[in-house]
Amino acid sequence: MTLPKRADAFGPHAFVAFCGLAASATVHADFIKDSRASLELRNFYFNRDFRQAGAAQNKAEEWAQGFLLRYESGFTAGPVGVGVDALGLLGAKLDSSPDRTGTGLLQADREKPNRARDEYSELGLTAKLRASGSLLKIGTLQPKLPIALSNDSRLLPQTFRGAWLSSGEVRDLTLDLGRIDRVNLRNSSDNEEMQVFNGGARNIVLGRSRSSDALDFAGATYKWTPALTSAYHYGALDGIYRQHYFTLGHLLDLGDAGSIKSDLRWARSDNAGGSNVDNRALGVMSTYKLGPHALGLGYQRMSGDTGFAYVNGADGYLVNLVQVNDFGNEDERSWQARYDFDFAALGIPGLTFMTRYLSGNGVDVNGRLDEGKEWERDTDIAYVVQGGPLKNLGLKWRNATVRSNFGPDIDENRLIVTYTLPLW
Q1: Global pTM?
Q2: What secondary structure does DSSP assign to 59-120, as a single string?
Q3: Contact in structure between 404 and 28 (CB atoms under 8 Å)
Q4: Distance between CA 393 and CA 375 in Å, rounded?
Q5: Is the pLDDT of residue 258 over 90?
């Protein structure tokens, strides 16, 4: 597969041309019969208090309502099946003010400084081709790959624009190949050029070009046994960085004594001519599960001349990526302890609890502080209604506390109510 080089290769003109091709194909009943559509309602309240001395803003606090309309068609008949997906997103402001913006829930009003727009929306279209065990998608993408991980932690999800070929022709082997040319941030309605995330103490220095119009990626995932999987992924943000990512996952079944799930990740990132990116990231997470209880322990280490690099607005694929931080700063060493409990064991199915604590140290902060420290404590309580007229209604409270000697001190609460209505 030869991927297009032009920045607008996956834009509206290309999609219209593809839809014309799809329309000329004989529409099979499976195209309609296998289609599905749903409407997700997402009500989101976000409150982040800044506790450090001299904070420019006391708090970021907003409330918003999101609507996520998803449609997935089936495929036409024949050796090459054709289909179309659509994602309609609408975010509406319920409460905000100039002194409380910046939660990431709402789009900023470009004509009114420090104000959020009353609403923002977008429509994402994806053409898809299926042949044997391979699937090609062109248009709006939401990849969940180590080198391109779509962020869905606010009102509306982040999306990418590009082409993605996933192949499962060989048993137990999945191959991925693609190119992304634009990103749509979670609080935006515009497709934009991509940048590298450089928050915290990344110490990443960029050359003349601060953005890129291409993220090329490839990967292979192999399931050696039902309990053992390994993967390699490569990503290159054109002109900024290159990244190699290796992962290993294993599940050890101990029978009546429970199970141990292990997750090992190692990444090597370096510059692609327009930055100083130089990072090696090692992470390991092991979780022991017995009945309704799960106890996890994690360790993560950064080395090299910069922190971990990934596309701005996306999630970094790190074991210590949590509610607020990812502990991926230059030279940072961090550990995590996590506990989960499922209340179904006590006769309350749908109710779950999670708490974790992370601590990081050794951070190099722009050469002026070589012992930066931070910690974060998170708690999630979630309930999903199991039956009756409100079945699948989800309620979640997320609480976080962050303290640092080089970044902001934060107390944060998120209240999220979700309900998904299947349309057919």
Answers
A1: 0.91
A2: EEEEEEEEEEEEEE----SSSSEEEEEEEEEEEEEEE--TTS--SSSS-B-TTSTT-B-SEE
A3: no
A4: 33
A5: yes
